[in-house]
Amino acid sequence: MRSLIERIPWWGYGVVGVLYLVAIGYRLFGGSSLSLPGLVLRLVVAWWLVLVSYLKYYDYV
Fold first, then answer.
1. SS3 for 61?
2. Considering Cα of 1, then 16, then 26, then 43, what sign does the dihedral take?
3. What are phi and psi of 7, to 5 degrees?
4. CB-CB contact of 16 with 49 (8 Å)
């Protein structure tokens, strides 16, 4: 499993994170309601993916 994760290119994390943020925005503006803990968790995961992308690009991880 670890070797699969290590083979993901740096931009892959960023793309998934941004798409996840767009999906969250689409759900919220589409009228769906999310509980506050669920929304916070989804936002943290999305921004974590974007941050990992940034860190992988600059070889911090």
1. coil
2. positive
3. -85, -10
4. yes
- Which secondary-structure segment (H or E) carries 13? helix 10-29
Q: In this predicted structure, what is the pLDDT of residue 42? A: 92
Torsion of CA 43, 48, 50, 56, to 10 degrees: 180
pLDDT in tens, 7-54: 888 889 999 999 999 999 999 888 888 888 989 999 999 999 999 999
Contact 46, 14 (CB under 8 A): no
